[in-house]
Specification:
alpha/beta, Methyltransferase, Cobalt-precorrin-4 Transmethylase, Domain 2, Rossmann fold, 5-stranded mixed β-sheet, 14 strands, 32% helix, 28% strand
């Protein structure tokens, strides 16, 4: 990336070095650059075709400012897709709202998320799931059967781009509220997974509830990592088999936690977590 040219672009768009994340698509690839744009509020991208960048931002509320031979243009991604660009240089991708991944670790307390009683992935489950999903800047995570979106929000706090797929409209409202409360952006798709179309290919997938049909569909997507959490023992073997059939190496554990509450240990309902890593 040409640092001098970048400085000139930032000056022209009225941005400081500290206020943006810079990504070189030539070095890291367009997919990496897109996922940073999907996750961060202000990103400068070099080495990318603005039309291709805009196409990949469908579904995210973003505005693009692009420098090309004709000067600076600020426009919606839908308009950038159909425009012919003359020797484009840098593109600034801005979110409609302002947020930044929060500090304070991960596997947050359950009550840090708005949720229906018993319908949130517990902190113990999230700690293990996050370790296996490996969310970080430049990757995209699907949170399928997201419920109130605790897994997706935690992934976004760690810098990943996140798509939450949830068919319950009340839960979708909770996802939006939880993402806003934690200062991150999560794209919400109000749909059953079978009806969700044109989703960008994920690097990792979390499947809440462990339903065999959902696991099979997610396994066919080809993500590098798939994590399944279920409290239903009848789902464990079918979920494992679905991952094995799709070419994943599968491991798992059952979490049996007891929380210290008021001087006593109170058991939390056991949950089985499976994780599959794509064979190389």
């Amino acid at each position: 990336m040409d640092v001098v040219a970048l400085h000139g672009f930032l000056t022209a768009v009225g941005r400081s070095w500290e206020s943006v994340t810079a990504v070189d698509a030539t070095e890291r690839g367009l997919r990496h650059a897109l996922n940073v744009c999907r996750a961060r509020p202000a990103v400068v991208v070099s080495g990318a075709d603005p039309a291709e960048l805009a196409r990949g931002l469908a579904g995210w509320r973003r505005t693009l400012t692009v420098a090309d031979a004709t000067g600076l243009s600020t426009l919606d991604p839908a308009d950038a897709v159909v425009r012919r660009w003359d020797a484009p240089g840098f593109a600034l991708c801005l979110a409609d709202g302002a947020w930044a991944p929060a500090e304070g670790g991960w596997a947050l307390p359950d009550d840090d998320f708005a949720h229906r009683t018993g319908m949130v992935a517990t902190a113990e489950v999230r700690a293990l799931a996050l370790a296996r999903l490996a969310p970080r800047p430049g990757v995209l995570v699907w949170d399928v059967g997201a419920g109130p979106g605790a897994i997706g929000v935690e992934c976004a706090r760690l810098g990943a781009a996140v798509v939450a797929v949830e068919r319950d409209p009340v839960q979708c409202v909770r996802i939006i509220a939880n993402a806003s409360a934690h200062g991150v952006d999560v794209r919400v798709v109000e749909s059953a997974l079978a009806d969700a179309t044109d989703l960008p290919r994920p690097d990792a997938v979390f499947v809440g509830g462990g339903g065999p049909d959902a696991v099979r569909r997610c396994a066919r997507v080809g993500a590098a990592r798939v994590v399944v959490a279920t409290a239903d023992l009848e789902h464990v073997v079918p979920a494992r088999d679905a991952l094995l059939d799709a070419g994943y190496e599968v491991e798992g554990t059952q979490l049996l936690a007891a929380r210290l509450t008021g001087g006593a240990l109170l058991a939390v309902n056991p949950v089985t977590v499976l994780w599959g890593a794509k064979k190389s």
